[in-house]
Amino acid sequence: MTAFVRNQWYVAAHAHEVGRELLGRTVLGEPILLYRTEDGRAVAMSDRCVHRRFPLSEKPSRLDGDRVVCGYHGFTYGTDGGCVSVPGQQRIPRTARLKTYPVIEQDAFVWVWIGDREPGDTLPPRAPWLDSPDHTVVRGMEPIDGDYGLLVDNLMDLSHETYLHGGYIGTPEVAETPITTEVDDKAGIVYVSRHMDDAECPPFYAESTGIEGRITRWQDIEYHAPGLYLLHSRIAPVGAPGPNADGTDPHAFHVEVVYGITPSTERTTYDFWAVARDFALEDQQVSDFLWENNRTVVLQDVVALNVLQKALDTEKAGYQELSINIDTGGLAARRILARLAAEGVEQVGAAAR
Amino acid sequence: MTAFVRNQWYVAAHAHEVGRELLGRTVLGEPILLYRTEDGRAVAMSDRCVHRRFPLSEKPSRLDGDRVVCGYHGFTYGTDGGCVSVPGQQRIPRTARLKTYPVIEQDAFVWVWIGDREPGDTLPPRAPWLDSPDHTVVRGMEPIDGDYGLLVDNLMDLSHETYLHGGYIGTPEVAETPITTEVDDKAGIVYVSRHMDDAECPPFYAESTGIEGRITRWQDIEYHAPGLYLLHSRIAPVGAPGPNADGTDPHAFHVEVVYGITPSTERTTYDFWAVARDFALEDQQVSDFLWENNRTVVLQDVVALNVLQKALDTEKAGYQELSINIDTGGLAARRILARLAAEGVEQVGAAAR
Amino acid sequence: MTAFVRNQWYVAAHAHEVGRELLGRTVLGEPILLYRTEDGRAVAMSDRCVHRRFPLSEKPSRLDGDRVVCGYHGFTYGTDGGCVSVPGQQRIPRTARLKTYPVIEQDAFVWVWIGDREPGDTLPPRAPWLDSPDHTVVRGMEPIDGDYGLLVDNLMDLSHETYLHGGYIGTPEVAETPITTEVDDKAGIVYVSRHMDDAECPPFYAESTGIEGRITRWQDIEYHAPGLYLLHSRIAPVGAPGPNADGTDPHAFHVEVVYGITPSTERTTYDFWAVARDFALEDQQVSDFLWENNRTVVLQDVVALNVLQKALDTEKAGYQELSINIDTGGLAARRILARLAAEGVEQVGAAAR
């Protein structure tokens, strides 16, 4: 399996998923309870009652105002994780306290910090299109029964669109066109670009943009290890002018495809996805189409990765892969994840000294 | 997991479950075949044919008079476990013999002895209300995907009624009222009492007794480790006279709630339950109501304990619980179980010397 | 579990199962892709893409002429396992090659060689009735969730027909009649014979042959370890003349029941079955009856062996069986399998030196 990277921010939920119902998510193996207080603040704490370890996200556990009441014996907790009531006695044991998690709500994601030290000034990477008046967004989450490294591999090498997503977002040119890869090791970012000058327009873009002929199609990936993946997708009719020197680009359609990649357990992953567009902003039909279409694409990935994980589970130790040019980005991502995971372990060691 | 306690009687079935159909039950990990002979005697023997280990409780295995015929190759056994017929030859190997189990039918339970020595004079603890003309009984069995220790914990601490069984048997007073606990270490019995002088009457008792106002409600638990749990429940309108000095108690309603707690495997448990009442003896509607209602309550426990077991399965070794006053009885039960389990092991060792 | 025997031919499929759809089968733990080329030749190769181990038998992987295109990133392979195309570049890495498996199509079975050396002159054992104009055949395959040794045991001891297959092929005489067993250790063949001179005719034979009274019924088993089992079944009315000296036998009905026993994983087995008859060759109703009836019998075995495997999974190490005369053939088969398995390991060792 791909090692977990601790001391990082992870997407625990889309903002709209966190509300006045108790939500349980397991992030890097840690069971986390999420809910929103009456004044709208997202909070995160351990999803296990201190008494007998009952999951606080499971019914009949419930919210009482901003407090969580365990559904088994009624241990009750405030938003700071402190226990405020136990059955049969007035005295609350001092150690009756749930671990809380630092939470940041940013770009319509609820991020939690998983680590052994405090985040300090560290902030999650940005995906501003997801919470911008200049974009319209569709989004969802699909769980994967597989190592999160399989999803990183998948997204870093979009040549698979041609085969796994043919008829949706794949065309022959995606697999045929070579990529360029840049790695910012220090920042932990991998950039992979594929610029197709004259390509078939797949249904995903033909139906949403209305373009009828061939297109120039740019795929510019930014992977912020470990948990955020951005695909800047630029679509324009062949022959249309390129971007202006000032960065404006009025002759093209832009879609920002964003993935929050969150390891849940060693063999399960949350695949948070969002598609933001800068055109047809008010067109519900386009929104419906993109939601349905991208969800189908994500589910094609989910099915393939579940199949792949099962296949890998039967491999003997030391089985071999064969990597080629298209894997440059994925391999760079694996190296960065391995380094970050090792650093996380060292930080734990340092904190213990 | 909670250690198994050997050299003890366990409920293997309600008496009505054992008949002329072959019944398989696994008790403390041992597969046991149960059936009733033509003259009505319950017998128990190993549920594995000596030949190729086929389960004798599985079809097409069948009874032929009082003999069991294996459904695979026809090895046939008498009630003493001895093989009386094999295919293709007249000679029966001398070692062709199933292990039999001591059986006692008592209080409408079929008890089996699981141990390395004979029970001698040891008898199962009593629950006489279950087979008494002065009581009417409803009963059932629900399997739990969890360690039997979780069910012991659950039943020893009834404060959970308020939260898990609200609307059925729980009211605020159960969780609020302190308990008194007594432990008879030598006999292996834990007593937990909670006397509520002025409490809301939950639907379970309101509908069955017809009481309309508030009640005095006594819960007197007797846990006979490892496998029998008795809850003496006394319900009376507030202000009604208490029991007489001679033990009679004509102004109250009495319900005896009995649980046979039988470990099946390390992670599965049989939850045999029965509810005996000393009122409305002929009223089928009350019987139907109590059966339905108590089964719902038991299933609420089953769901919660299955959830809890799954949560505990993901905990790291050495995870912590926090215990308070209400847990006094449960902790005492755990101590007795640990002692009995250790004694069982010592007895095995002694027997081997 | 029963040890795998390497350096042997195994039935991987009925011939009709291998066509222009990609078929995945796991044989002795090795994932194998099977398909037929455009000119009709069956080929077998590793079912894992060299790139990221995606199963080539899983959609959207597909055939393009005689080439296999991986459904994940489009790695494309010829029938010799060599990779002929990868995405994003012209150069094919030299090591991009799938392991291929020797294949022989014989007697309407597709056999694959599982081993560490080449088969050389070794050929699979024969079952010529399955592909003969003098016979009509019905066939199928049922997977078993059990060790293949359980299926060998099952088929070597037909006394179980009386109990497990009563009402189909079992009658009391099968279990009652002693067997004779011969073992050709060198060739790895076990012969078990049971000749019933005057027996009830079970529905399987009564309905297919039209015989109305009692029969002589011969069961002559030839087990070619590890993977082919033949049951020569001879049925004739009681009193009919026996076979002629020249081997012809015009007064009897002959049914050749053939099993390909193929270990899939340590706990799963393919049960390939076929029933060939030398009578009523054109009678579709008899074919339908025999297909339905034999499939039911096979499924009775499957259910029993699945139950048995689950029971064995809970046994402690060193549990005991008890064997009698009817087990002579099965025990001989186990000895031969153990010897062949050990030889397979030695051959691996020898090859490595």
Automatic annotation (TrEMBL), chains A, B, C:
Pfam families: Rieske, VanA_C. The keyword Oxidoreductase applies. Residues 9-112 form the Rieske domain. Keywords: 2Fe-2S, Dioxygenase, Iron, Iron-sulfur, Metal-binding, Oxidoreductase. InterPro entries: Cholesterol_7-desaturase, Rieske_2Fe-2S, Rieske_2Fe-2S_sf, VanA_C_cat. Coiled coil: none annotated. Signal peptide: none annotated. The keyword Lipid metabolism does not apply. One of its GO terms (molecular function) is dioxygenase activity. PROSITE patterns: RIESKE. PANTHER family: 3-KETOSTEROID-9-ALPHA-MONOOXYGENASE, OXYGENASE COMPONENT (PTHR21266:SF60), IRON-SULFUR DOMAIN CONTAINING PROTEIN (PTHR21266). This is Aromatic ring-hydroxylating dioxygenase subunit alpha.
